[in-house]
Amino acid sequence: MSSETSAPATDTRESTSVTPPGGVEHVDVLIVGAGLSGIGAACQLRAGHPGRSVAVLESRGASGGTWDLFRYPGVRSDSDMFTFGYRWRPWPSHTALADGGLILDYVRTVAREQGVDRLVRYHHKVLGADWDSAAARWTVRIERDGEPLTMTCGFLWGATGYYDYEEGHTPVFPGRERFQGQIVHPQHWPEDLDYAGKRVVVIGSGATAITLLPSMAGTTEHITMLQRTPTYILPQPGEDPWSRLFDRLPLPAAVTYPVVRWKNVLRLVASYQLARRFPRQAKAVIRRFTEPQLPEGVSFDEHFQPSYDPWDQRLCVVPDGDLFKALRAGQASVVTDTIETFDETGIALTSGEHLDADIIVTATGLKLLAFGGLELSLDGERIDVSQAMSYKGLMLSGVPNFAYTIGYTNASWTLKADLVGEYVVRLLSHLDEHGLRAVVPVRDESVGERPFMDLASGYIQRALDDLPKQGDRAPWMLRQNYLQDVRTIRRDRIDDEALAFS
Description:
Elements: E1 25-32, H1 36-48, E2 54-58, H2 66-69, H3 81-84, H4 100-113, E3 120-122, E4 124-132, E5 137-144, E6 147-158, E7 182-184, E8 199-203, H5 207-216, E9 222-227, E10 233-236, H6 241-247, H7 253-277, H8 279-290, H9 300-303, E11 316-319, H10 322-328, E12 332-336, E13 339-343, E14 346-349, E15 354-356, E16 359-362, E17 375-378, E18 381-382, E19 390-391, E20 395-396, E21 402-404, H11 413-433, E22 439-441, E23 449-451, H12 458-461, E24 469-471, H13 482-491, E25 499-501
Parallel strand pairs: 1-2, 1-6, 2-3, 4-17, 6-21, 7-16, 8-9, 8-16, 9-12, 10-11
Antiparallel strand pairs: 4-5, 5-6, 13-14, 14-15, 17-18, 19-20, 22-25, 23-24
């Protein structure tokens, strides 16, 4: 990937898998997941290793991952699209915070352009994989339309994201069974849900809740966001002004896209670092942008001033201040309180207030699931991934020929996904050049352990015991810093002392 905007060239040859007489199909690289990460991984592999056979297994019946699964009103990215789009394929719009439909179309268009759509196999749920040290390959257990299937591969790549696609997180609410209206979780939004003229309460204060509120306001009779604690929220222009400016100039996307992208990268990195180092000043900046947008009678301190510092949890952005517009129009409201109980007509709060509701939306977060629930084993012995240590945020100690893609928590997911793809391409080239078949990160026992993710968000804290660890120094530490990762992942030598080759 030498050019910032050059899309991976699609090789005209079709890399083919091998099915020996025994009937077990073998591919060189097996990618699990056909979402943003899996499609990008396959594109980079086709560009860097056109002769390798690649298959992408997707448990659902469609590509797109998150952007096909979530169908709630207004679903959108909470990262700007000039960094959320692939580095090598310009985002084709001025829209900074795009809705789910635009993102899904972008991912599928890229897959078609690169011929990756032909590599995806749907309704293939990967259950487990066992590494055979003698053969230097994975044997992968799959369920295809309810029937067992086995494949083998030389390299296994988990691009499943980090949350459970089957169910989201829903706390136990007292009296839930008494409520006579409809209860909906955004992860499983009913296609026929009619909320026109209804009273709706959205429980939650994260990105999903602040998206639902302005999207449904005006159609509902009234919609209320019920939050236990506030979230830091900042307005952001719905379109990127630099992209708009460059559109008036006779310059190709190959020139303008990297400029806009790097402007946004530097803004992301700088704002995060400054907020972490100077939290008091960061709070003041957020207040200066947010408080003037609130209607009279809505307290910033009560509803928009969290007790924690910025970026202890993920900071949320709203395009063109749409959330605040809904509040000012009187179509929506925010209540900060705790739930005493559900009852027949809504929610009774600890303060004694009652929220009448016809529909309750539990936007209470995700349920994390490491590597899509994939069970790994080594020569028949189960690997406990919670005891493994993450190497550069893309491989696991003690697990050979395995990579995974998990994006940044403080910036666009795809920034990290692109780097992981580049690294795997370089790693496979290194194996080829030196006649090697296997590589495994070897943990240094002197490296101290840290939690895999350092956000205090509930959905992360609930799952930390099941996730790998990170270390207290490189290359085992996850710095969550794109600029540093460009150096350590994209440019550092492959054969460092933490990797063992055979």
